């Protein structure tokens, strides 16, 4: 189930990257993720415009983890949380929630790798800078320069 760990790492990385995008683009985009793991069925449907699709309880459960989730969080069911914890991920118990078609389920939020996401530990932001961030920096530097010139004149 190494693919599950990679999927969680990807979701955590997307969340962090979105924070960078928001800082540099002056937006407030948010992300909500639901993850489940298990058997499913996949196939191609449609004669004129074939489309690949997947079905099954796993797909429904992941969809419900998303739709009942909280913005900015990655929500998983109890068994997935236990597996992730055994692989070094830090989780936070959300508690019991009502899930359509499933009844009451115990769910957890995935916080990330325990060694990388401890409280108070600074994260390393991406070194990629957007055009908006560069322009903003230039404008701020120019304002500072204008203020210094105004102070010298007085």
UniProtKB/TrEMBL annotation:
Its EC number is 4.6.1.1. The keyword ATP-binding applies. Pfam families: Guanylate_cyc. PROSITE patterns: GUANYLATE_CYCLASE_1 (PS00452), GUANYLATE_CYCLASE_2 (PS50125). Residues 1-66 form the Guanylate cyclase domain. One of its GO terms (molecular function) is adenylate cyclase activity. It is an enzyme of class 4 (lyase). The keyword Membrane applies. It catalyses: ATP = 3',5'-cyclic AMP + diphosphate. One of its GO terms (cellular component) is plasma membrane. This is adenylate cyclase. It comes from Lasius niger.
């Amino acid at each position: 189930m190494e693919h599950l760990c990679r999927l969680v790492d990807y979701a955590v990385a997307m969340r962090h990257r979105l924070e960078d995008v928001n800082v540099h683009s002056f937006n407030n985009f948010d992300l909500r993720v639901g993850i489940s793991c298990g058997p499913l069925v996949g196939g191609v449907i449609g004669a004129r415009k074939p489309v690949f699709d997947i079905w099954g309880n796993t797909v429904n459960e992941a969809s419900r983890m998303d739709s009942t989730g909280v913005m900015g969080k990655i929500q998983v069911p109890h068994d997935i949380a236990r597996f992730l914890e055994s692989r070094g991920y830090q989780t936070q118990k959300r508690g019991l929630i009502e899930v359509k078609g499933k009844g009451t389920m115990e769910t957890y939020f995935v916080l990330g790798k325990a060694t990388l996401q401890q409280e108070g530990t600074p994260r390393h932001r991406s070194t990629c800078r957007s055009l908006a961030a560069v322009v903003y920096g230039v404008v701020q530097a120019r304002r500072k320069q204008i203020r210094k010139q105004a102070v010298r004149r007085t």
